[in-house]
Amino acid sequence: MTKKERYFKIKELLDAEYSEAECTLDYTKPHELLISTILAAQCTDARVNIVTKTLYNKYRTVEDFANANYDELCNDIKSTGFFRNKAKNIIECCRKLIDEFGGEVPDTLEELVTLAGVGRKTAGVVLGDVFDKPSLVIDTHAKRLAKRMGFTKNTDPYRVELDLAKIVPVKDRSVFCHQLVYHGRAVCDSRKPLCEKCVLNEYCLKNIK
Ligand code: SF4
Q1: How far apart (Å, rounded) are the C-alpha atoms in residues 175 and 169?
Q2: What ranges do the domains of the chain cover?
Q3: Residues 55-101: pLDDT tens digits?
Q4: Which of the residues 33, 93, 95, 155 has an alpha carbon 20 to 30 A from that of 112?
C-alpha cells in the first residue's frame, strides 16, 4: 500500500473512533484561544483550562491583557510553567493586536507568526479552530504518531508538517491532527503504545513493516 492509501484507511478508522475530535482548549473568543495556546507550551491542556477559567473572567478583552500588570499576570498563570516568558509574550502579543490589527486576531499564518509567542503550531491551531482554515498542527502527539505510522522519518515539526502535507488533503488537516492527539492520549502512548488493541494496527507502519 502507498502512504496515501494507508492514510485514507487510517483516516476512515479515526473518523469512526473520534468523530467529535476537536480542540481540547476551552475558549469563547478568538484571542482566548490564541492565549490558551501560548499557555499550553510545555503544559497540559487540562491545566491550561483550569487556569483560564479564572483568567478569562479577570481579563475579558484584548485590551485587558495588553494593559495587564506583568507581575500580576505572572502570578495568574504561574501553574502553567515558564510563566515569566508567557506573561511577557501575552502582553506583547495583545499590544500588537491593538497597534497593528485593530484589536482583532488576524487570519493568516504570515500575520499570526509576527505576534510574540506565536509559532506555526499556535498559528495553525487558531487558523483551523477559529477561522476554519484547516491546518496541520504538529504537536508532540502528531509528531510521534506520524512517525510511527510511517508518514514521516523526521522529528523536526516543520519537516513533519511538510511530509504530512504531501498526503493529508487540506480539508482534513485540522481534524486529522486533533484525532492524532486523541489517539495519542488514548492508545498510542509515547512509552507504551497499545498496538495489540489499536484499531489502526493493520495500516500502521510500526506493525506492518
Ligand atoms: S498500531 Fe501501535 S504505533 Fe501504530 S498507531 Fe496504533 S498504538 Fe500507535
Answers
A1: 11
A2: 3-22+136-208, 30-129
A3: 999 999 999 999 999 999 999 999 999 999 999 999 999 999 999 99
A4: 155
Range 3-22+136-208 classified under CATH 1.10.357.10: no
Residues in the chain: 209
**Whether residue 175 has pLDDT greater than 80:** yes
Q: Is the CB of 136 under 6 A from ligand 1?
A: no
Q: Which atom of ligand 1 is found nearest the CA of 193? A: 7
**Ligand 1 pocket: which of 140, 195, 205 to mutate (most atoms within 8 A of CB):** 195
- Regarding the domain with residue range 30-129, which homologous superfamily does it belong to in the CATH classification? Hypothetical protein; domain 2 (1.10.340.30)
Cβ(121) – ligand 1 distance below 6 Å: no
The confidence score (pLDDT) of residue 207 equals 74
Proportion of the chain above pLDDT 90, given as a percent: 97
Amino acid at 119: G
pTM value is 0.90
SS3 141: helix
Calculate the alpha carbon distances from 27 to 92, 130, 159 in Å: 20, 10, 29
* DSSP conformational letter for 79: G
Measured by CA distance, the residue closest to atom 1 of ligand 1 is 201
Is any atom of ligand 1 closer than 6 Å to the C-beta of 146?
no
